[in-house]
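Predict both folds.
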Amino acid sequence: MKCRLCRREAERGPTLCVFHARAREALLEGYKRWSDAYGGLSWKEFLKRIKGRAETGQWVKDVVEMEGSG
């Protein structure tokens, strides 16, 4: 099966390569921390803020796009 974001072999999760799966895991962990820090930040707002940060890597941005369109 191929990664739905980059077409590498999907090794983890239902349809993500190891790189995008790790990026998604980091995103979920980050959301928990941000939500606590900001007092209940919504998932959609979190994705918007993460996407706009200069230090956000491309794999995370790919996952943000995927999550935001779902």
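Second protein follows, with its predicted structure tokens after the sequence.
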Amino acid sequence: MSQRKIIGVILLVIGVILLVFGYNATQATGEQLAENLTGHYSDQTMVYIIVGAVAAVGGLLMVFTGGRR
């Protein structure tokens, strides 16, 4: 396995973990109350979701295109 694919797998795992943290944060009572009052989630929750999604997509791309040179 190439080094690029290994880094891709690591990014994918980190991305999934951050997405799970973000999802769990959206289900918290305080977060749901804030979302109902303001119409959007807190900045920290959005960072988890956005960074997690970017890392997961980047990791997938690195895994599937990592070995071609």
